[in-house]
UniProtKB/TrEMBL annotation, chains A, B:
Keyword Nucleotide-binding among record annotations: no
Pfam family, one: HTH_3
Entry annotated with the keyword Coiled coil: no
Organism name: Sphingomonas canadensis
CDD domains recorded: HTH_XRE (cd00093)
UniProt KW keywords: DNA-binding
Highest taxon in the source lineage: Bacteria
Name of the featured protein: Helix-turn-helix transcriptional regulator
DNA sequence: GCGCGATGTCAAGCGTGCGTTACATTTCGT
DNA sequence: ACGAAATGTAACGCACGCTTGACATCGCGC
């Protein structure tokens, strides 16, 4: 599933480590999600949207509508 | 994580089996999510929001804000 | 009373989300 | 040139999302 983590993180000048600490997960988890190696759990997706002040739909692309929009 | 699956399903008069088929998962998965035994994956959460024509935030309660609203 | 749809739950198995540890590479300040 | 920060990736272990198959209960029409 595509996501805008890298861009959102860059806008705030946060390292993967910074973001990981704000989320309460490991740096490797942030990296894996960012590089698309796996999708976050739903609770983690909520926390991610939270730290950026966005909705989940604004951070992650709906996989069933990847070509839309 | 709390969710409004049971209510949304009742509004449409769908059985758990009906919803499961629309989502492409087993009836047991729908039941487990509905009864709160576990949270759906993020891709499945997107599909669930889709079949109800809602946003993820309108179906699932943000666990870090459960008392809010 | 009987059968049937709907629901709840269990067990076993598989793939994956996330942790820890570790190592390599790149980039940057001094 | 050197050290440190940032990033990418790998191996291993554990917990969980989801499957199939099965069984029990409940409410309903007949």
């Amino acid at each position: 599933m595509k996501n805008r983590l890298r861009v959102l993180r860059a806008e705030r000048a946060w390292s993967q480590q910074d973001l990981a600490e704000r989320l309460g997960v490991s740096r490797q988890s942030v990296n894996a999600i960012e590089t698309g190696r796996y999708d976050p759990s739903l609770p983690l997706a909520f926390r991610i949207a939270d730290v950026f002040g966005l909705k989940i739909e604004d951070v992650f692309a709906n996989p069933s509508r990847e070509d839309a929009q």
